[in-house]
Design brief:
It is built from seven helices and 15 strands. The chain has 273 residues and is α/β, with parallel strands linked by helices. The chain has a seven-stranded mixed beta sheet, sandwiched between helices. A four-stranded antiparallel beta sheet has the order 2-1-6-5, with helices on one face.
C-alpha cells in the first residue's frame, strides 16, 4: 500500500476533490484515502494515483476514460451535496452572503439547517475565525447536514443545534447576522432581534408572498429598518458557438428574499407580535 502522505507532489490525504469526466461532463466527488479505489460507471480509479497527479491534471480509469482532477468550487459543493430537502440555490446564496455582509470572524445564526447547503456557504464566509450556529428541529436532517459539513471540510466552523427555534430562544448574543429558512419564522423574530448586535442584519427566504407581507409587517413593528424584498432568476445559455441561445429551461422563482437591519434603538413593541 502506498503511503500518499510521504510524497510532497501529492494532494494531501483527506482532501475533498472533484473528478470531471472528459467523456460526458459528469462531476464526481471523493475524499482521498490511501490505498483505496474509486468505482465509477466508466471504470475504477486509484486514490493514490489521483493524489500523485495533482489538481488540474488528468487521470484515466482502468477502462481508459479520462477525468480532470479539480478542487470543487463553493457552487459545486452546494449543488452536489446529498439532500433530503430543497436547497437554497447558488443564485440566491450568493446574494444572501453579500446582503448579510458576512466576513471572516463574524458570528451568525441560521434557523433551518436542512441539508446544510447554505450552512456550507455561511461557514466558508465566516471561517476560519468566525462561527455559524445553525438550528434544526429534525434530527435526521441535522445528521445529514453534519455529514455534508464534514465532507466539505468546514465542520469546525459550525455549531449544530437540534432545537425548534419557534419554541426555544437563540442562546447566542451580539451576533452579526441571523438568517431564516423556515416556513413560519414569526415566533422567532423577537428572539432574533435580541440576539443581533446593533446594526446587524436579518434575512429570510420565504416561499409565498403572503408570508413576505406578514414578515415585513412584523419586523418593521419590532424595530428593523432598511427592509428589502427581492427575488432572483437566472438563465443559462447553450454554449455551441454556431447555435448560441438560451437553454429551454431556466432557474426561475425559488423563493422571496427579505433583508433588514436592526435599528440602533433597543425598543421593541412586543405587543405587535
Amino acid at each position: 500500500m502506498t503511503n500518499i502522505a510521504n510524497d510532497k507532489r501529492m494532494i494531501p490525504e483527506g482532501t475533498l476533490l472533484m473528478l470531471y469526466s472528459l467523456r460526458d461532463g459528469k462531476r464526481l466527488f471523493l475524499t482521498l484515502e490511501a490505498g483505496r479505489q474509486f468505482s465509477t460507471l466508466h471504470g475504477q480509479l486509484h486514490h493514490d494515483e489521483i493524489a500523485r497527479m495533482g489538481f488540474g491534471e488528468k487521470v484515466s480509469s482502468h477502462l481508459g476514460v479520462e477525468f480532470l482532477i479539480l478542487r470543487p468550487t463553493l457552487y459545486e459543493l452546494i449543488m452536489h451535496v446529498p439532500r433530503s430537502t430543497q436547497i437554497v440555490y447558488p443564485k440566491d446564496a450568493g446574494y444572501i452572503l453579500m446582503k448579510l455582509g458576512l466576513r471572516n470572524g463574524d458570528r451568525m445564526i441560521e434557523a433551518g439547517t436542512g441539508s446544510g447547503a447554505l450552512t456550507i456557504a455561511f461557514a466558508y464566509s465566516v471561517g476560519p475565525e468566525g462561527r455559524v450556529s445553525t438550528y434544526e428541529k429534525r434530527i435526521d436532517l441535522l445528521n445529514k447536514a453534519i455529514r455534508n459539513l464534514e465532507l466539505a471540510g468546514i465542520r469546525d466552523y459550525v455549531e449544530t443545534n437540534n432545537e425548534d427555534v419557534e419554541i426555544e430562544p437563540f442562546k447566542e448574543e451580539g451576533v452579526d447576522a441571523v438568517f431564516f429558512d423556515i416556513r413560519e419564522p414569526d415566533g422567532s423574530l423577537i428572539h432574533a432581534h435580541r440576539s443581533l448586535r446593533r446594526g446587524g442584519t436579518i434575512g429570510f427566504i420565504l416561499p409565498t408572498m403572503n408570508q413576505v407581507i406578514q414578515v415585513v409587517g412584523r419586523i418593521e413593528a419590532i424595530g428593523f429598518v432598511d427592509v428589502e424584498v427581492t427575488e432572483l432568476m437566472i438563465r443559462h445559455y447553450k454554449t455551441t458557438p454556431e447555435r448560441m441561445r438560451p437553454n429551454d429551461r431556466m432557474v426561475g422563482h425559488t423563493g422571496y428574499l427579505v433583508f433588514a437591519r436592526k435599528a440602533l434603538t433597543e425598543s421593541v413593541n412586543e405587543g405587535s407580535l
